[in-house]
Amino acid sequence: MAAVLPDWLSPQEFSTAIDEMANAIGQQWVIHDGDPKLRSYRDSFSTLPGDANVPSAVVAPDGIEEIQAILKIANEHRVPLWPISTGRNFAYGGPAPRMPGYVVLDLKRMNRILEVNEEYAYALVEPGVSYFQLYEYLQKNNIKLWIDPAAPGWGGIVGNTLEHGVGYTPYGDHFMMHCGMEVVLPDGTLFRTGQGSLPETESWQVFQYGFGPILDGVFSQSNFGIVTKMGMWLMPEPPGYMPFLITYENEEDLAIITEVVRPLKVNMVIPNGAFTVDLLWDAAVKVSKRQYYSGKGPIPDSARKKIMSDYKLGQWNFYAALYGPPPMMENTMQVIRDTLGAIPGARVWTAEERKHDAAFQYRSKLMRGEPNMTEFGLMNWVGGGGHINFSPISPTTGEDAMRQYEMIKNRSHEYGFDYIGEFAVGWRDMHHVYMLMFDRTDDEERQRAHELFGVLIDEAAAAGYGEYRTHLAFMDQVAKTYSWNDHALWKLHERLKDAFDPNGILAPGKQGIWPAHMREKHSWTS
Amino acid sequence: MISRREFLRGGAVAGIATTLPAGAVIAASQTRPTVAFDAICDTRYEEGDQFLRAVSSQAYRVHGLDNDPGSVMPAITAAVAEGRAITGLTTDAALLLAEQLAFAEGYALTYKGVHKHLSTDQIEHQLTLGQRWQESIKPALLEADSAWPEVIAKLMITVTPDTEALVEKRLTASASRHPESPGHLVSWILQPI
Ligand SMILES: Cc1cc2nc3c(=O)[nH]c(=O)nc-3n(C[C@H](O)[C@H](O)[C@H](O)COP(=O)(O)OP(=O)(O)OC[C@H]3O[C@@H](n4cnc5c(N)ncnc54)[C@H](O)[C@@H]3O)c2cc1C
Known about the structure:
Largest sheet of chain A: 8 strands, antiparallel
Strand content of chain B: 25-35%
Number of domains of chain B: 2
Oligomer: heterodimer
Number of helices of chain A: 15
Number of strands of chain A: 19
Bound molecules: flavin-adenine dinucleotide
Distance between the termini of chain A: 32 Å
């Protein structure tokens, strides 16, 4: 099958560019021309029809010089490149590019763990290093440090952090915990951020700042450069670990739970990401919807009640953990019992009491930095594999939690879908993640899911809630919602894009930031 | 004693698996596979067990999955490293992970079946195939009732080199659902093409 190409690129020019890239990095590291391996660069689970956003080719360089060579060729022929690190960004687009026909720049071969410093508790890694890989390295070498994986252990430190991803230990805000980047700009310029630009430094991974503006953020969720190394702080293994679950009986309890969580988080009584998880998210890891309900539309309350009783779950299920010397944990646990545990109907569960519970087990692993893939079990709730995440942010208040919950639940029910969500309190903020599951083998259902997602973005924005990241298909729509002062921020992003990448070769359209030559057709303003 | 399910989770060389107390082994197709294949099934469900019993005498290696769909990953990595085809009757999540790993090594789905219970006594089979379509499968599925995993297994154990699955056929049959069944499973063949 002939590759779909961007409209300004002729098949001949594309073919010349690909040949030149193959010469630069070796034919075996270039995939194109209907090679079956291209299949692994699709997002076959989104709300888009068929195999949308299929790349025209994939190039997998190893090292800075090869990246620079590819950039040079891409600039000459105006070939759009889509960089990925581990390429597992499912729920937001997987490894697929923003538009069909881009060339994926797959950094999987750059998967070296360059340094692990046990004393200062950090690692310096290349983009292709996955959570599983770093975890195994630490285990094998008996290094007493913990990583902080996202729920899917096959993702990686660099890609996830650049997407502002979150984890479950006290180091759960990944961007906050990164320290130092090495970046290649679209014109091939190579530089290091922070202390890394001082030639003799020993402080690149211990101090996040340097001298002058802090640029790291400019290269996250953006299309201004390719990150080729990143430092990440790791958590020293604590002397004790105490995960717990508190189940709550009523939907309305979300308000009081959130109110009680806020001071516990802001005062750092709960040290890690505090997750208030709805019934179906927890249940879906173990059972499917059809085991309780074979009708159409959202699962009825009677079936929810049955699931609660069969699996001893709450309408809301609060997960967190304590870390440290056992007497300190016991003390803090008492505070938890006296606060979150004192909400009427609450039941506090220990690890021992939930040792046979698959949902508790995988969360317990995540909260101690042990990567796994169990959360993918959620895909089995309706079957058919479709999934996409809607992730609005708010302050940690009961009112905001209930408002978002009601808004999203009511809309998803109206569109015939279950509400499957969780509220993650990082510190002062709350990430609400609604996982929209649909049967992708049913075209009408897929389209309905797509429509619902668009409606949610606009409704959330109207209520003052913006998404912290989104799927490829909705990047322009979300970008449009960040519109304060006549879209001043996105206009600035565009000026930066023009300055960093005048030919517009790097990830055009990522986060709704389009290069000048594509702006008229695609822009968030249209 | 280690249970059969625990044993399969570790990945068992087929033949050994069938000697375990797994109940009656369904007679496998007389047609020998022309391609070596591994078989993967979700041993939490009766359907998975049925499938496994029907394929295990022909498979090179069999693997059982549990609550963690990630348990499919080492099985795929091992089969792909040796270029073997892989057949499965699993949940969608396990297939999603299997596909990603296998596609990266030049594998394609040469067969995919979606088995959706429409009610407690009706099932829809959506079969997408390459060149493997056999007219005989239709009456067999219509008659199979809850033994449909065996019919599917018999279609799959004659694994031959094939093309990517693109042609879809749908049929609805009566089949009573096991109370524990997830009501939605996928059968599939991944092979290098
Ligand atoms: C069931 C499920 C659970 C999930 N749970 C979580 C969770 O707990 N936490 C979470 O954060 N996410 C979660 N996700 C979303 C997602 O799967 C993870 O964030 C995953 O880690 C992202 O993929 P990756 O790490 O392979 O990054 P990649 O796919 O490699 O990168 C993501 C994007 O970052 C950019 N990028 C990557 N590398 C570079 C580079 N070197 N230079 C410049 N730009 C680059 C690209 O735009 C790329 O598309 C979940 C998804 C699912 C389906």
